Every structure is written in C-alpha cells, then in structure tokens.
Inverse folding.
C-alpha cells in the first residue's frame, strides 16, 4: 500500500504536479465557500472562460499570460455588471452573453496565431507539463489570496451574507466585491496548467457546495471545503497515474463524487432522524 | 422629497419629520415605496428631488449611527452562521483589519440578553424560528449601537406572541431614546404602540399619531375600499377606538 503511494512521488514531475495542484486546490476551495454562498457559481464559470482572450492577447503582444488573464477575468466581471444594468436583463443572461462572447473571442484570436500553447491544455490542464514556474505562481497566488482573505474575512463574510447591512454599516462593499473578483481571476490563472480553465470551475464550486451540506458555521465550511479539495486532488492524481486517465478530469470527478456521497448521506441521516423515536 | 427609478416614480412629494426617540410605522401595500423610503433613510439611495436629513446630516454621513435590517426575502437563510456571529457582525466597525468578529464582546452578550436569545447563541441561524431570527437581527442592530433602527417588514409572517415580543423590545429601545422606523403592509392593533404612522402609496397619504391617521378614508386611499372595511373593524374592536 505504502509503495503504491510512494511510487509516483519518485518522479520529479509528479511531485511538482501534486504540490502545484494542492496549492491551487487550497486557494480555489477557500474561494469556493464565498462563490457558493454568494450564488456566484455561474459567475465563476464566466470568469474562467473569459480569461481565454486575455491569454491569447498576451501571447500576441508577448507579455506574461497571467497578467492578460487577470485583466480579462476582472474585465468580464465588470462587463457582466454593466450588461446586467444597462441592458436590463437578468444576471444569468448577462453572464451567458459575456461568457460565450469572451470565450469565442479567445478561440478566434488563438486560432489566428497558432501559439506554442496547446489550447487543449489550457482548457483541461496537463499536469505532466507543469513547470516549477507554475508551482511558484500557484504558491504566490495562494499566499496573496489567503493573506488578503484572512485580513478582511469578517468584511467578506458580512458582505456575502448581507450586502445591504454591510453597506449601511460602512463596509466598502464595492472594494470587497472586486477583491473577490480579482482573487477569482488569479486562482483561475494559477489553475491553468493543472486542471485548466474549464475544470477549475469544479474546484471553485463543488467543494464549497459539499461543505455547505454539513457545516455548522463559516470556519467549519472553509475547513471542509479545503479538505474536500485536497482529497480530490490527491485521489485524482493517483488515479490518473495508475489507470492513465485525464488528471484534471479525475480530480473533478472525485470532487463531484464526494458531493453526491455527502448529499445522499445527509438525506439518509435526515430521514432516519425523522423516523426515530425523538424528533429533531 | 421624491425618488424615481428611471421613469418609474417610487415616491413622490413625501414630506415627513420626526423628533428622535420615537417609533414610526411606514404602512402601505406591497410596492408602495416603503422599502425605498427606508433605503433613502439608510443612505443606500439618494432622493431625485428634495432633501433628507438623518440626525441633522446626510444619511451617507451618518453611516455608523444607522442600523438596517433587511426584509426576510433578502437574507440567505442557509448561510452557515451562528446567532452569536450574526450579532457580533454588528460590531464590525469597531474591529480593525486582520481580526475576526469579536464574539466575546460585552456588547454581543448584552444584545443577546436584551432580545432573550442567550441560550440559542451558538445555534445556527437557520435552526431558529421566524420570530427568533427576527430578534437575532435586532440584536445585531443593538450590538451595532446606532441611534436609528430601520427595519423592513420585521413583523410580517410572525405569529402573535412573536410579534408582541418583538414590539416590546422595540418599545423599550424607543424608551431608551432610540428612533425606530418599521415598515409593514399589515394593519394590526399593534400599531397603537407607535408614536407616528405614515400611510404610503407612492406618495404620503397621511402622517401623524395612529389614532388620527388610521381612518377608514385614509386607509381606503392606501389600500382600496374593499379590503379596509374588514381591517378597520378589527382595529376598532381590539384597540377600542372611536
């Protein structure tokens, strides 16, 4: 058993992949709690798709791709807000319009330049090609995200729970909102090489959703969310190593499985309590 | 003052004032502009015409002094938060960066005991009854320590004992000098507890002490003829007016 666990770690690329993906997962899972509680699942999806044109333009103009991705990610969240208020359509419609628009723009731009970056890798990740630079990027993003969230956690909780109260009491809600948008974009960028921009949505939504099923308070929710993410990454990477399947896909699949197991378990528990001699 | 959303008039020529330390009810049917008026008072909206002063200043300059409790529909009840955490949120401005909410603050326990929720303090908010949840939100406002309490539809959906309990706490806050503004679409006998009542239907129908304002004529202007007859009988019977 121990050999099975240790064997993949004998390879440099597996060690780099594991550490990088774990860093990404911790960042995403902390953000996941806010994404789920604020009802931003679709927005997370939109930002992740919208970073593509940013990356494409960065490749053309030859500046670091994560800067392009951040600009595009935050830009898209601003654009969604604008479309929603100016066109007077519902939020999910605005997200649908901006998301597909940005994603297709990205595809068009990339198709004209034949980049060295494989589009399939951007979309779904490729842990076998994770470089040490990717690891540093993930560590930097994780560090910045945790430090920022840690220092304004109560403001973020107040804003995500009751934005109107927060505004009246004097919390800078717009600042908090855009800090979260920037952190979302950053976490998506750091996930590019590991799980890709499509499957990162799974790490931004599913662990938080799983945690919400069982958590009693906010700190518990954060902890469970991170635990689900870390477990999914480790299990997913080992699965992909031993049975040669897509690692990003395996990680997302394990996280999804965890969600359904917890959901079924909480439902059974609730049903048993109802049948028991004492009511809840 | 007036308020428009693009071409829609939410409130037109509403003019009222109150000394501090009073309890005021804003009454009107759904969509009559009660929430808009509360949001103007809270500084969340700016009047499109006219002026508004809260404690003698612009509402946005009175931030720390105003507390706002949104209506039930605006709260995400499944948020994993305990009652104590919710109440401690009221003290958020007193806590600096890098620090979590002060759960051991004396103001938190005082507020909890004032609304009678000490024993439920560590329960998850979603586990409480409607009346208890409303009192928990009131405790947050108390913990905030403001002078003006704005509550949007706090008594809608509550049973009679819960409503009485909530109004009792509000009255005692009023007696300690706080100003309470409550919106409600229900006309009930408890309105006699208020110092002033404002009937609103996108404009001010009437404003003054409840006995003077809650006439059948004013109420029909606000709600329409048929509905009022029933309500007014109830009020007369229970409150023993006229």
């Amino acid at each position: 058993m121990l050999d099975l666990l240790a064997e993949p770690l004998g390879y440099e690329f597996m060690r780099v992949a594991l550490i990088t993906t774990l860093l990404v997962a911790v960042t995403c899972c902390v953000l996941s709690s806010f994404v789920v509680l604020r009802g931003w699942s679709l927005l997370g999806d939109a930002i992740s798709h919208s970073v593509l044109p940013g990356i494409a333009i960065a490749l053309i103009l030859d500046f670091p791709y994560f800067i392009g991705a951040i600009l595009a990610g935050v830009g898209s969240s601003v654009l969604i807000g604008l479309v929603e208020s100016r066109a007077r359509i519902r939020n999910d419609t605005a997200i649908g319009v901006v998301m597909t628009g940005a994603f297709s723009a990205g595809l068009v731009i990339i198709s004209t330049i034949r980049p060295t970056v494989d589009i399939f890798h951007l979309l779904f990740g490729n842990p076998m090609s994770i470089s040490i630079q990717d690891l540093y990027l993930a560590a930097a993003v994780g560090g910045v995200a945790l430090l920022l969230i840690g220092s304004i956690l109560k403001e973020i909780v107040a804003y995500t729970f009751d934005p109107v109260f927060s505004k009246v009491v004097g919390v800078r809600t717009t600042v908090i909102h855009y800090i979260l948008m920037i952190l979302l974009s950053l976490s998506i960028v750091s996930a590019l090489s590991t799980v890709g921009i499509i499957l990162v949505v799974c790490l931004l939504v599913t662990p938080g959703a799983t945690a919400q099923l069982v958590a009693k308070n906010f700190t518990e929710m954060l902890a469970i969310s991170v635990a689900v993410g870390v477990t999914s990454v480790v299990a997913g990477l080992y699965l992909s190593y031993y049975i040669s399947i897509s690692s990003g896909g395996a990680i997302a699949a394990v996280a999804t499985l965890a969600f359904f197991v917890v959901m079924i378990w909480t439902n059974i528990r609730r049903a048993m309590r109802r049948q028991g001699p004492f009511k809840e | 003052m007036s308020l428009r959303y693009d071409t829609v008039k939410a409130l037109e020529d509403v003019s009222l004032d109150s000394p501090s330390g009073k309890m005021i009810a804003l009454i009107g049917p759904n969509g009559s502009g009660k929430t808009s008026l509360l949001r103007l008072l809270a500084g969340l909206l700016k009047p499109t015409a006219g002026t508004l002063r809260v404690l003698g200043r612009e509402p946005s300059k009175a931030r720390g002094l105003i507390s706002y409790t949104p209506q039930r529909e605006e709260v995400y009840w499944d948020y994993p938060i305990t009652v104590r955490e919710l109440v401690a949120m009221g003290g958020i401005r007193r806590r600096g960066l890098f620090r979590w909410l002060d759960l051991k603050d004396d103001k938190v326990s005082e507020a909890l005991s004032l609304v009678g929720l000490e024993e439920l303090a560590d329960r998850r908010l979603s586990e409480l009854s409607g009346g208890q949840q409303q009192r928990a939100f009131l405790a947050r406002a108390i913990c905030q320590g403001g002078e003006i309490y704005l509550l949007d539809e706090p008594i809608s959906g509550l049973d009679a004992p819960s409503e009485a309990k909530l109004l009792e706490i509000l009255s005692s806050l009023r007696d300690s000098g706080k100003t309470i503004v409550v919106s409600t679409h229900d006309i009930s006998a408890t309105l006699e507890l208020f110092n002033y009542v404002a009937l609103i239907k996108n404009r001010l129908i009437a404003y003054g002490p409840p006995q003077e304002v809650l006439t059948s004529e004013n109420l029909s202007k606000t709600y329409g003829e048929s509905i009022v007859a029933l309500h007014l009988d109830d009020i007369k019977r229970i409150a023993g007016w006229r």
